[in-house]
């Protein structure tokens, strides 16, 4: 590629080096011209939201990168289509075909796109309207492409540095801004507001004031002026550009299509938007009005105060929250509901409602869109003082979550929700959908997509937030570990919505053993009434002896719930294998219990663990524990008193008078280790006393009986704050229900830290033992 003098005459001059008035005027005029042209294009309906959605779909499935395609045009088989730096419609179609890997891109789509790039183009001093600039096209698609923002920055730079002098001049930078604005427009931002902000930023980019931008300046700018990144890497899955998030749904009551207003039909399938509850026939989806839900403020005027967002229909209660009279929802599409506060009203009652939305009953948990805004819209001063601008390029891990700023409503506790949609069968996915509606979808993270990090990063500086983990105990352990690693300035308290079976931790924290479709709004209200407890967590170090034998990998290095050696673990081991082999037999909690029983009884044949005390020694806080009078098949170390779905191996303690916590503290003052059986009798498990309960298990039958609640407990051996095992043969072990076979080794368990956990409100019934369970 050479350089073509005058080819970008349509827009010229440095936006931030406006040495003289005429220049400034010229520049703005050019810009207004382009804006107007874009606006006209929009009015002519050139590329609609559904076209844009289609385009993104294509890109999702395509394996090609813009850079690959660009090569073909620059010096490959497509070179014939290139006229200067421009391509005609035919070349453009070829570009799309190769880039999107689609043989027949719909004509209206490619035409609309082509026209959107036509801004008037100079080739050898002649304006050509029938071509588009290849760099513009490439820049546009590369902004949409996945990938690291750093790489995109470098790519866009090289794209426009056509003379390869390592420097962008004013008109080149301006063209990039225009492509960014184009993106912003699809995200429905207020472009006229954005333009001066971007220009100001561009001025700041030119660190040495040379009037042009070097690659180093450009990269540093992209990394330190977050707003660029908003446009370079905004998470596209939450598209925020008016697309509904459809899912098929059958309705148990008569429902009317938001588009054609005729009945969907009882028991017939329609589509319902997860975000706004807009409902349509399958056939009406293409013509649906854009989704009203915007997850963040896209314009300065939207920051701070939240307005109601009314959507027709969706009045499930059938009663008007304004006049308290019935809404006749069974005969036609009537009424309005607000997607944030969930008020339901008559159409006629709308004028009597104010504008301001307080987010309703769940306001304590909600981050309304008015509280989330692109950092680019923060005032200039705030932008400069933002933390990220102090980072150097080297220690930056660029992330889109840093592109959005959170400023929560005061006196609220925004909830960060993590959902493991694979937990608990279909329940997980349903919970994900429901929270997306109840809260701001930006508060709800699907763990299977990117794990916990994006959510933790997004909420990092939010004051007083809480976390809700929806999943099994394993998922909770994963989140706690991520919180550990994230090194947060403030460690938020964690609540649990247990999905699936065997959730001992959730049970101990009074969130129940497994969610069965209860009202999530009610659960969120319980959360408001919950209290913080600082739960101990324990490190496990396994030091194997040198043997030929191979061990399974140790599943975790931290104990949140319990650890065991011997029969208990071997049962869990076999259970685990059976469950993987015959998942259909394990589809309910009741059946799981029966299986445990069956294994436990057949376990008596399985004699690996007979006379465990002969192949194992135990030290508690440095002193050996005498096991000689016992005939053990297992030893369990408990942080929480519930194991394997609600069994209490420690057993009930007659509820002592007074405060349990106080009693434990009192004991602790005199003895770190308790082995005296009389004192042990009075001990109550406490997950925040920095001590573990050690229990001996005498026989397989006994354990089976404990699991099925026919019998209550094992032998209380000790309460201590440190424990070491030495084993002399291969034994089954488990941590938090994950079993493995371990060759002879030394195992050290020590206190690691405490995590703030939320304990649910006490249940109504008094059938409640111990401190928490
Ligand atoms: Zn919607
Ligand atoms: Zn319809
Ligand atoms: Zn509202
Ligand atoms: Zn009313």
From TrEMBL:
Domain (DAGKc): residue spans on this chain: 410-544
Signal peptide coordinates: none
Cellular compartment(s): Cytoplasm, Cytosol
SMART domains: C1 (SM00109), DAGKa (SM00045), DAGKc (SM00046), EFh (SM00054)
Keywords noted in UniProt: Acetylation, ATP-binding, Calcium, Cytoplasm, Kinase, Lipid metabolism, Metal-binding, Nucleotide-binding, Repeat, Transferase, Zinc, Zinc-finger
Root EC class: transferase
Catalytic activity: 1,2-di-(9Z-octadecenoyl)-sn-glycerol + ATP = 1,2-di-(9Z-octadecenoyl)-sn-glycero-3-phosphate + ADP + H(+); 1-O-alkyl-2-acyl-sn-glycerol + ATP = 1-O-alkyl-2-acyl-sn-glycero-3-phosphate + ADP + H(+); a 1-O-alkyl-sn-glycerol + ATP = a 1-O-alkyl-sn-glycero-3-phosphate + ADP + H(+); 1-O-hexadecyl-2-(5Z,8Z,11Z,14Z-eicosatetraenoyl)-sn-glycerol + ATP = 1-O-hexadecyl-2-(5Z,8Z,11Z,14Z-eicosatetraenoyl)-sn-glycero-3-phosphate + ADP + H(+)
Domain EF-hand intervals: 148-183, 193-228
Classification via InterPro entries: ATP-NAD_kinase_N, C1-like_sf, C1_DGKalpha_rpt2, DAG_kinase_typeI_N, DGK, DGK_typeI_N_sf, Diacylglycerol_kin_accessory, Diacylglycerol_kinase_cat_dom
Pathway: Lipid metabolism; glycerolipid metabolism
The enzyme's E.C. designation: 2.7.1.107
SUPFAM superfamilies with a match to the protein in the record: Cysteine-rich domain, EF-hand, NAD kinase/diacylglycerol kinase-like
Family affiliation: Belongs to the eukaryotic diacylglycerol kinase family.
Subunit structure: Monomer.
Name of this protein: Diacylglycerol kinase
Organism: Rangifer tarandus platyrhynchus (Svalbard reindeer)
